[in-house]
Design brief:
The complex is a heterodimer of chains A (154) and B (90).
Chain A lengths: L5 H8 L5 E5 L4 H14 L5 H14 L4 E3 L2 E5 L10 E11 L9 E8 L7 H11 L2 H9 L3 H9 L1
Parallel strand pairs in A: 1-4, 3-5
Antiparallel strand pairs in A: 2-3, 4-5
Helix pairs in contact in A: 1-4, 2-3
Chain B lengths: L1 E6 L5 H16 L4 E6 H7 L5 E4 L14 E3 L6 H11 L2
Chain lengths: 154, 90
Amino acid sequence: MANNDATSDIDGFLPDSSFLLDVPAKDWKDAIRLAGKGLVASGFTTDAYTDEMIGTVEKMGPYIVIAPGMALAHSRPSDAVLSTGLSWVRLSTPVEFGNKANDPVSLVIGLAGHDENEHVKVMSAIAGALSKPEKVKALADAKTPEEIRAILNR
Amino acid sequence: MDILCVCGNGIGTSVLLKVNVENVAADMGMDVTVTTSDAGSAKGTANMNDLVLTSPQLAPELEGTSTPVETVQNFMDADEIKGILEKYQD
């Protein structure tokens, strides 16, 4: 299992094609569509998953806005998930998701997974980074996907 | 203590919350076992745990369980999680 450490997980689950940096979105649905676009571009999901992610929020509310300025767009495992992976969307202008405590959102992380176990390491790395204010700032300032992965791997 | 983290689908936010709860508990020297679940099946498994953590939007789905349910507003805020765990610390 030499290839199973967090570093290679992040490289594999967040390839360059998963990133959309400093892009505009007109509303939360548009922001989730961008996260879906990143997942599709990396071959993690089909377009149907994008609609499922939007459906999750429509059904269960904006609970996916997990922290101030951050949303974890995802849906349940389905046929639309081809393999486990993530997308990383940094919005040029924050949008409202309707989550009073944590709006507006400027970072949308898209997540496609088969089960909770496959991506737990990469989620640990993300949780570790997003819970530290200095890393959150560094992620907001990072210029390239490479820089963002490096911050998550630190 | 056994803690159940609940989110809509059981694979996203609950996993992030689990990671942070484990980190905070380790810092506090608390011995915890954290599992994750989706809101639909959480009602069945909640009573096997000592505490349920979820987001304010999903808490209504867990109404009626006998296990205490606490809501977390900011899943990335170690202090908020710590404040909740302290209430249950022996």
